[in-house]
Amino acid sequence: MTTLLHIDASPRGERSLSRRLSDRFVEAWRAHRPSDTVIARDVGRNPPPITTELWIGSVFTAEDERTDEQRDAIKVSDELIAELERADLIVLGTPMYNYGMPAALKAWFDNVIRIGKTFSFDLERGDYPLEPIMTGKTLVILSSRGEFGFGPGGVREDMNHLETHIRTCARYLGVEHTHLIAIDYQEFGDERHERSIEEAYAAVPQLVEQLQSSRRSTPATVTSGRG
Fold it and tell me: Which helix (H) or strand (E) holds 78?
């Protein structure tokens, strides 16, 4: 049995390309494994709270010493981390906003990357004191991007602060394997965009089959379009 955590970060509805991609992935997965559990978390329409001084003080206070106000301040964080702990596979649908994460997705990461919950901190480790607590998770990024050339060697590679940021943060969520399918050229709306959509849709069932056939697959990236 596999548990999927399905996260959508776009505030848009049916017009969202990243939502369509993530929905297709989950539908394709469940078509072959209907008994698997899917936890849905829509941060695009229901953004987690941003971090505050109260939030920071709460997570750095021992659990048995927290006030009611502090416990309430991190209640959503606790819920999000509980969902993450259950997940074997994180299915993340997200657009690229201003070459990075939507604010709601950044808020989700800020809520779940938490000392003592998802990572430990020990200065005895030297210059790299942070270590993830969770292990063995797989992340699938299903993205939409207005321009193109964001992949390795692409003309906008150095402008891609979405997947690079996600991959960096994902390590502290126990992610060991990451896969990407992306739609490009959205701002152009030409035949390249249409081709990118077709290639992304075609890549989804292929990736589902790959992951289902081997839950111990080596790290890989599946990229559609010319990005």
Answer: helix 75-86
- Residue 99: give its domain's CATH number: 3.40.50.360
Tell me the Ramachandran region of residue 225: left when phi exceeds 0, alpha when psi lies from -120 to 50, beta otherwise: left
Q: What CA–CA distance (Å, rounded) separates 96 from 84?
A: 22
Domain that holds residue 61: 3-213
Any domain includes 198: yes
> Residues 6 or more apart from 116 whose CB is under 8 A from it?
59
| Structure confidence by residue, pLDDT tens digits, 145-186 | 999 999 999 999 999 999 999 999 999 999 999 999 999 999
Number of H helices, E strands in the chain: 7, 7
Domain count, the chain: 1
